[in-house]
Design brief:
The complex is a heterotrimer of chains A (about 130), B (about 140) and C (about 650). Chain A is mostly helical and about 130 residues long. Chain A has two domains: about 100 residues, Orthogonal Bundle (Fumarate Reductase Iron-sulfur Protein, Chain B, domain 2), CATH 1.10.1060; about 30 residues, no CATH class. Chain A contains ten helices and one strand, in the order βαααααααααα. In chain A, helix 2 packs across helix 8. Chain B has about 140 residues and is an alpha/beta fold. Chain B has one domain: Rossmann fold, CATH 3.40.50. Chain B contains four helices and four strands. Chain B is globular. Chain C folds into four domains: about 120 residues, Rossmann fold (3-Layer(aba) Sandwich); about 260 residues, FAD/NAD(P)-binding domain (3-Layer(bba) Sandwich); about 160 residues, FAD/NAD(P)-binding domain, CATH 3.50.50.60; about 70 residues, Alpha-Beta Plaits, CATH 3.30.70.3270. By secondary structure, chain C is of the alpha/beta class. The mean pLDDT of chain C is about 95. Chain C is about 30% helix and about 25% strand. The chains are: A mainly alpha (about 130), B alpha/beta (about 140), C alpha/beta (about 650). Chains B and C meet through helix 1, strand 2, helix 2 and helix 3 of B and helix 4, helix 5, helix 17 and helix 18 of C. Strand 1 of chain A pairs parallel with strand 26 of chain C, so a sheet runs across the interface.
Chain lengths: ~130, ~140, ~650
C-alpha cells in the first residue's frame, strides 16, 4: 500500500463521495464505528480504516476487501458517528463502484438453485440483488 | 538518634534556599517524587545565608550528612548569594576533610524551583552514599 | 519560655493518610514551650483558622506553629490569622509536613517520626521569633514595558488607560513585533495588520505612553516600586524630530541587505523602516551595512533628505529612569532549522518555514500576497505542510509543544486553497491539538470544506526531485506508505525563547526555565507575576501562546501593574539585616557582599571615660535590604543578623532537627 499524489487526487475518491453523498474527508479516525460494529469480527478491513483508505485515495485496495460484503448496513456506526458520516452509505458506494464495472455483478439469477428460489422469501431475493448486482 | 528500622538510616539535614531549592523540594512533593524520610529541610532565604557554623553544628548534633542547596549559578534571587555560598563551602569542605569528615557527607547542589525530580534524586543519592559511609562519629558530640 | 500552640492540619487525607495526626498532637504537647496542641481536617479553612484564633485567646498563646502544607502556600494566610487574634504576624512558624513529608514518604511510622521532628524544629524556631514590623516604601508611579509586540502594546495601552505613565522600549526601529509579520489570524481569518496597526497608532498617539524604539535595556537596579533602569537608545542616525517619514532616503540608498522582517525573502536598504506601516514611520541607519559607516563614502541619504534629518554623528544615549513596575514582553524567535537537514531547508528554495510562507500570503509581502514558488515564480499545486518541526523532539529540538503550529497550519491550508484554485494541502502531523474557542471547528473546516489531507506521520525526508519535491512518510492510521510529489514544503518550526532572553532575565533578576522562557511565580495561580516583586510577564516570553492568550496575559499584567502603582505606599519586607553596633568592628566585610548597596558606613561618637571616641560601624538601609543574609555570614564578629532568620533561630532549628 502506498499513498501518492496521483492516488489522492484521483477521481475514485470523488466518485465515492458523489455516489454516497458522504464526505469521507470529514472522518477524524476516532474508531467509534469499528468499536460498535456487530459483524466486525468477519471483516478484513475495519470500518474506520475503510474511511481512512478512501481519504488517502487507496480505493482500489478497498474494492478487493471482504468488508464490503460483510457489512450488513445495520446503521449502528452511523447512529453513533460524531462526525455525522453515514459509513454504510460509503461502503454501499464502494460496492456500487465495483458492481458498475464490466462483469462486476456478484449475483446472477442463473446461479440460484431451485431450492433457494423456492424457499427464499421474495424480499430477501430483492435485497440480495440490490446488494450484489447492478 | 536517626530514625532506625532495619540497619542504619542516616540523618540528612538539608539547608534549602527559599526561592529555588525549597521550591524544588515542594515540587518533589507536589509531583510525588519519593526520597527517604530521614532527609529534613531547614528553610533559609538564600544559600548565601548558610553560615558554616550551622553545618558544623549539624554534624556535632548527629547529622550524618549535610546538604546546602541553592539556585543555579546566575539565577540567584539575590543576584550573588549562591556565588558567595560556592566560595565559602569550597573552603569549608577542605576544613571538614581536615577534621576527618568524608567529603561525601557534605554536598552543595544547585536545584531550581522546577527541578523536583532532581531534588529527590539528589536526596536519594546522598542518602545512599552516606549510608555506605556509616554513622558520622567524628564530629558527633559525646552525649 | 513563650507559650506556644501547635496546630496540625490533616489536609483532608493528604497529610492524615501518611502521618498519624493523633500521635503527632500527643508528641507536640510534650515539646518544650508547647502549652496547647490541636488538629483539624483543614486548618486553612475558616473553621480551622477560628480554632487558632480561639486558642490564642483562651490559652494566652504567644507563639503559633502550624503543621500543614508548604509555607510558600499558606504562610501569609496563617500570618493574617494570628494577626487577627492580636499577635505579631511573625510569631507564626510553619512546619511543612505535606510537600516535604506526607507527599514524599509512604511509610506511616517513619513519616510520622519525621513530621514530629519538623514540628519540633518549627517550635524551636518559633520560641525565638521576635515581633517584626514592615516599613513603608514610596512607589514611583511610572511603568516600563519591555518589548513592543502585541503583548507589550496591549500592556502599555491598558496601563495608560488606567491613568499611569508608561515607557515602551522596543529593540527594533518599529513596534509591531511578530504579529506584524502575520497575514491573517486564526480562527476568524481577520487580517493581522487590520487589527494590529490601529493599536500601534494608539500607542504612538497616547499622551501617557512614551515610545523608545531602537532601544535596549542596559541595566536594572532597585526593587518593587523603585526600579532604576538604564535604557540604551541606539544611535538611529536619523533626527526623529526633523524626519517627516517621506521615505525618499530608502529609495535612493544603494546598499541592499536581507530584510529581517521578510526573513530574507526580499532586500531592504541600509537606511530602512522594517515595514511600510512602521510606528514610528521613521527610518534608522543600519551601521553594520551602511556604506558611510563601513567604507566612509556615499552619504546619499544625507543629500536626498529634504528635511536634513540624517545625522551620522549620533551616538548611543543612555538614559536612567525610575519605574514602579516592569512588564517583560519580549516575545519569541522561530526555531532555526540547522539541525534538520532531512527537510532540505536551505537546499531547495521551495522549502519554506511557516513564517516565510506567512510572508508569501501577506499582501505587503515579497509576492504581494500571491503564493508563488521561490524557485520559478509559479503557484504550487500540491503543498506539504510538516508539523512539529523542532517541537516534541527531545533529541535535537524542543521537547515541548509549540502550541500554535496546529492552528496556523490549518490556517495555511485554508489560505492556500483560497488563494490557489485547485491546490491540494497535505498536512503531516503527530497529533492535532486544537483546544480553544472555535479552534476545533476551524480545523474541521480545513479538511472537511477545503479538502486538506491530514496524514498522521512525521515526514522522514524531503527529496528534491528536479523542480519538484518528494515527501516520504507513512500514514500511521492505515499503515500505508506515503510518497507525495509536491511543489512546495512548509515547515511548522517550533517556538524558541527570544535570543537574549537569558541575559535580560539576569538583568531583571527573574528566572527562566531550561528553554529560557521566563518563569511565572506560580504556574496556575500567579501566571503573570514573577518571583521578583514588581516584574510581570506578558506573551510568549513566558512560553508559547497564541494571540488571544497573549493579549489576555498582557491585560492581566497591566492590571497587576496598575494595582501596584495605585497603592499609596508599599510595605517593605521586615525580614532585613540588623547591626549590633556594640559588636561591630567596622571592617565592613558585609558591605562588600551586599548585592543591593544597602549597607553603608556610619561614624559613632562614644564616650570612653572622659574622651569622645569616634568609631566606624556598619548601617543597614531597611528599604534597600532585601533580606538575603549574605552579610550575616561575611561578618566575622557576628554583629549583623537577619531578622526572621537569626543565627539563634537557625541554630535552634539545627539542634531540634538533629534530636
Amino acid at each position: 500500500m502506498k499513498v501518492t499524489t496521483d492516488k489522492i487526487n484521483s477521481n475514485l475518491v470523488k466518485e465515492v463521495e458523489e455516489i454516497s453523498g458522504q464526505k469521507v474527508s470529514a472522518c477524524f479516525q476516532c474508531g467509534k464505528c469499528t468499536g460498535g460494529c456487530p459483524v466486525v469480527g468477519s471483516m478484513d478491513i475495519f470500518p474506520h480504516r475503510v474511511l481512512r483508505l478512501a481519504q488517502l485515495g487507496l480505493v482500489e485496495e478497498l474494492l478487493h476487501s471482504r468488508t464490503l460484503w460483510i457489512c450488513a448496513s445495520c446503521q449502528t456506526c452511523d447512529s453513533r458517528c460524531p462526525r455525522d458520516v453515514d459509513i454504510p452509505k460509503v461502503i454501499e458506494a464502494l460496492r456500487l463502484l465495483l458492481l458498475r464495472r464490466k462483469g462486476g455483478n456478484r449475483l446472477h439469477p442463473a446461479s440460484l438453485s431451485a431450492r433457494v428460489l423456492a424457499n427464499a422469501p421474495q424480499q430477501g431475493l430483492v435485497s440480495a440483488f440490490r446488494k450484489y448486482a447492478k | 538518634m536517626p530514625v532506625t528500622r532495619e540497619g542504619f538510616e542516616p540523618l540528612i539535614v538539608a539547608f534549602c534556599c527559599n526561592w529555588c531549592s525549597y521550591a524544588g523540594a515542594d515540587l518533589a512533593g507536589t509531583s510525588r517524587q519519593p526520597y527517604p524520610s530521614n532527609v529534613r529541610v531547614i528553610r533559609v532565604p538564600c544559600s548565601g545565608r548558610v553560615n558554616p557554623s550551622f553545618i558544623i553544628r549539624a554534624f556535632q548534633r548527629g547529622a550524618d550528612g549535610v546538604l546546602v542547596a541553592g539556585c543555579h549559578p546566575g539565577d540567584c534571587h539575590y543576584h550573588s548569594g549562591n556565588y558567595h555560598a560556592r566560595r565559602r563551602f569550597t573552603i569549608l569542605k577542605q576544613l571538614l576533610e581536615y577534621l576527618g569528615i568524608e567529603p561525601e557527607r557534605f554536598q552543595v547542589r544547585w536545584i531550581s524551583g522546577s527541578e523536583g525530580a532532581k531534588f529527590s534524586a539528589v536526596m536519594n543519592e546522598l542518602t545512599e552514599n552516606v549510608r555506605k559511609l556509616g554513622q558520622n562519629r567524628k564530629l558527633r558530640d559525646a552525649r | 519560655m513563650k507559650r506556644t500552640g501547635v496546630f496540625i492540619c490533616w489536609c483532608g487525607s493528604n497529610i492524615a493518610a501518611t502521618v498519624d495526626i493523633e500521635l503527632a498532637v500527643a508528641a507536640a504537647k510534650n515539646m518544650p514551650g508547647v502549652v496547647f496542641a490541636d488538629q483539624n481536617k483543614y486548618m486553612c479553612s475558616e473553621i480551622g483558622q477560628e480554632i487558632i484564633k480561639e486558642a490564642i485567646r483562651s490559652h494566652r498563646l504567644e507563639r503559633v506553629v502550624v503543621a500543614s502544607c508548604s509555607p510558600r502556600m499558606h504562610e501569609n494566610t496563617f500570618r493574617k490569622t494570628v494577626a487577627a487574634a492580636g499577635l505579631n504576624p511573625y510569631f507564626l512558624e510553619i512546619a511543612n509536613v505535606r510537600e516535604q513529608c506526607s507527599w514524599v514518604h509512604k511509610d506511616k511510622e517513619t513519616a510520622t517520626a519525621k513530621a514530629i521532628a519538623l514540628i519540633r524544629t518549627a517550635v524551636a524556631k518559633a520560641l525565638r521569633n521576635e515581633a517584626l514590623f514592615a516599613s513603608e516604601l514610596p512607589i514611583e508611579r511610572r511603568a516600563l514595558v519591555i518589548g513592543g509586540g502585541i503583548a507589550g502594546i496591549q500592556a502599555a495601552l491598558d496601563i495608560a488607560d488606567s491613568g499611569f505613565v508608561v515607557d515602551l522600549v522596543e529593540k527594533e526601529p518599529s513596534i509591531g513585533g511578530r504579529m506584524a509579520q502575520l497575514d491573517k489570524t486564526f480562527p476568524t481569518l481577520d487580517c493581522s495588520a487590520c487589527i494590529l496597526t490601529p493599536k500601534m497608532v494608539e500607542v504612538a498617539q497616547s499622551e501617557k505612553i512614551t515610545l523608545f524604539t531602537y532601544a535596549e535595556i542596559e541595566k536594572v537596579e532597585g526593587y518593587v516600586g523603585n526600579f532604576t533602569v538604564t535604557v540604551r537608545n541606539r544611535a538611529r542616525s536619523v533626527d526623529m524630530s526633523k524626519c517627516t517619514g517621506c521615505g525618499d532616503c530608502m529609495l535612493k540608498c544603494p546598499v541592499k541587505v536581507d530584510s529581517e522582517f521578510d526573513l530574507g525573502l526580499v532586500k531592504r536598504r541600509a537606511i530602512y523602516t522594517p515595514f511600510p506601516q512602521a510606528v514610528p514611520n521613521k527610518p534608522a541607519i543600519d551601521r553594520e551595512h551602511c556604506r558611510w559607516f563601513t567604507e566612509n563614502k556615499c552619504r546619499v541619504c544625507e543629500k536626498i533628505c529634504p528635511a536634513g534629518a540624517i545625522d551620522y554623528s549620533q551616538e548611543d544615549e543612555l538614559m536612567t529612569v525610575k519605574y514602579g513596575a516592569i512588564v517583560a514582553a519580549t516575545g519569541f524567535d522561530p526555531k532555526k532549522l540547522g539541525n534538520y537537514g532531512e527537510y532540505a531547508y536551505g537546499k531547495h528554495p521551495d522549502v519554506l518555514t511557516s513564517l516565510e510562507f506567512e510572508r508569501l500570503l501577506n499582501a505587503s509581502g515579497p509576492t504581494a500576497g500571491k503564493i508563488l514558488r521561490p524557485s520559478n515564480g509559479r503557484p504550487p499545486k500540491n503543498v506539504a505542510f510538516i508539523q512539529c518541526v523542532g517541537s516534541r523532539d527531545k533529541a535535537k529540538g524542543n521537547p515541548y509543544c509549540a502550541k500554535v503550529c496546529c492552528m496556523y497550519t490549518a490556517k495555511h491550508a485554508i489560505l492556500l486553497c483560497e488563494k490557489v484554485p485547485g491546490a491540494r494541502p497535505f498536512v503531516f502531523y503527530i497529533d492535532v491539538r486544537t483546544p480553544g474557542k472555535d479552534y476545533e471547528e476551524f480545523y474541521n473546516r480545513a479538511y472537511e470544506e477545503y479538502g486538506a489531507t491530514y496524514i498522521k506521520g512525521n515526514v522522514s525526508k524531503v527529496f528534491p526531485d528536479g523542480d519538484k519535491l518528494l515527501v516520504r512518510s507513512v500514514d500511521a492510521l492505515s499503515g500505508a506508505l506515503v510518497e507525495l510529489e509536491v511543489e512546495m514544503v512548509v515547515l511548522a518550526n517550533s517556538v524558541d525563547a527570544r535570543a537574549g532572553a537569558k541575559e535580560l532575565a539576569q538583568k531583571l533578576s527573574i528566572t527562566t526555565n531550561a528553554f529560557n522562557f521566563f518563569n511565572e511565580a506560580h504556574p496556575k495561580l500567579r501566571p503573570v507575576e514573577t518571583h521578583t516583586a514588581g516584574i510581570f510577564l506578558a506573551g510568549t516570553c513566558q512560553g508559547p501562546k497564541d494571540i488571544p492568550e497573549t493579549v489576555a496575559q498582557a491585560s492581566a499584567a497591566a492590571m497587576k501593574v496598575t494595582a501596584l502603582l495605585g497603592k499609596d505606599s508599599l510595605l517593605s519586607t521586615p525580614t532585613v539585616a540588623e547591626v549590633d553596633e556594640k559588636l561591630c568592628t567596622g571592617d565592613m566585610s558585609c558591605l562588600v557582599v551586599c548585592p543591593y548597596g544597602a549597607i553603608s558606613e556610619k561614624i559613632l561618637e562614644e564616650r570612653r571615660g572622659r574622651e569622645t571616641v569616634r568609631r566606624k560601624v556598619a548601617e543597614v538601609n531597611m528599604v534597600l535590604c532585601q533580606g538575603c543574609g549574605a552579610c550575616t555570614v561575611a561578618c566575622r564578629p557576628g554583629a549583623i543578623n537577619l531578622k526572621g532568620f537569626t543565627n539563634e533561630q537557625i541554630m535552634a532549628e539545627v539542634e531540634a532537627i538533629c534530636l
